[in-house]
Amino acid sequence: MSTKPILADAVIIGGGAAGSFCAVTAARRGLSVIVLEPNDKIGRKLRITGKGRCNVTNNSDIRTVMNHIPDHSRFLYGALSRFSPENTIQFFEELGVPLKTERGNRVFPVSDNANDIADALQKEMNRLGVSVLHEKGVDLVTEEGHISEVVTSSRRILTNRCVIATGGRSYPKTGSDGDGYRLASKLGHSIVAPLPSLVPLVSDDRSCSELQGLSLRNIELTATENDKAIYKERGEMLFSHFGITGPLVLSASAHMRHFDTSEYKVILDLKPALDEKTLDLRILRDFSKYQNKAIRNALGDLLPKAIIPVILSRIAVPGGKPVHEITKEERSKLVHELKCFTIPITGTRPIDEAVITAGGVSTAEINPRTMESKLVPGLFFAGEVLDLDAYTGGYNLQIAWSTASLAGNSI
Fold it and tell me: What's the pLDDT tens digit per position in 134-169?
């Protein structure tokens, strides 16, 4: 370790979305800022978010953002009021990254390239003279209860302001390994147990493995907790050997937090544009068209080929049964199955497969007006390391930008 310590007005541990944004904010105020980022580039997770497109924010008002945050949304009111989605859009466009708004008010770079967002932050940090050390923050030292020093793997940094912006535990290969929880808890902070959110769902229903690889589009997914609907949306999903995944499933998973005490199901409406009566008439037309064929060969105009035997098995109708022998009762069962294809959910995939971590540093111990610790003066937090998470749609990155902006303006 270097024997001679270095000085900085502020040290930010973590060079992801929140850490980089916080660094820019603080440096624009004239502070000398050091960012500790073990990866060779800043924003490694940011560069792969949104399938590499980066859903920067959601082009909506503060109330809408808060409505998409399941827990502790009121804690974020101050941060969102000071730095809103509108501010986010203006910030990146002023850095030379044109943005566009898509379905659901999701905001992306016009280039559809997440690297443009991370590179813009890197370029601005360079312009402002932010020093990025590719080292790990291993310890925080306090003097009379106040932050006084950050220790890295190779040096000591004297500072009285430190921001922990290390992310959660999702995508650990990008550096989000939960180390921020260790640093925070060592200084007395409570950690709400990290859980996976926006994560594939596990089911022991054999239909899932039988349909592995099948993608369904334009369906409606309803998630239930103890038979009460908790989420409903139209879109697409994918069957896998372990259960189900895809955009609708990831969004639904954010509402499933109590597998130890609750029973969860996913109900698929494979034909949401048709009510049961209209769907029955449609099936009757197909049956008339293919009346002399086996039923497994008569549903190809209506359904993907792979799902037909699974549907028929579920309603106990032999696939080789001629269409003209199908009873009204069997047709009624078919209609019901197409509108209510039910999959019991037993859990989620591991946290390292999650897009976002739920849980983290308790917001009860953070000042919502500054993002400073109530326990340790000079210690601040920003981003996913906090017990804050949201549904899909750009809301999680908005949490990062807003908390980072507030911390950067408070240190």
Answer: 999 999 999 999 999 999 989 999 999 999 999 988
% of the chain surpassing 70 pLDDT:
98
Q: Mean pLDDT across the chain, nearest whole number?
A: 95
- CB-based contacts of 383, cutoff 8 Å, min separation 6: 14, 16, 17, 18, 19, 165, 167, 399, 400, 403, 404
pLDDT of residue 175: 57
Which among 60, 59, 90, 72 is positioned nearest to 405, based on CA atoms? 90
pLDDT-based confidence at residue 120 (cuts at 50, 70, 90): very high
pTM as predicted? 0.88
- b/e map of 362-372 (b: 16 or more CB within 10 Å)? ebebbebebbb
Task: Give per-residue burial for 319-336: e unless 16+ CB within 10 Å, then b.
Answer: eeeebeebeeebbebbbe
Quick one: tokens of 43? Answer: 């924003």
The answer to whether residues 194 and 351 touch, using CB atoms and an 8 Å cutoff, is yes
Number of Cβ within a 10 Å radius of residue 244: 27
**Mean pLDDT computed over 224-235:** 96
The mean pLDDT value for 32-59 works out to 95
Q: At what angle do helices 85-94 and 395-410 cross, to 10 degrees?
A: 80
Tokens of 95: 């850095």
Q: Is the pLDDT of residue 126 over 70?
A: yes
Backbone φ/ψ region at 17: left (φ over 0), alpha (ψ -120 to 50), beta: alpha
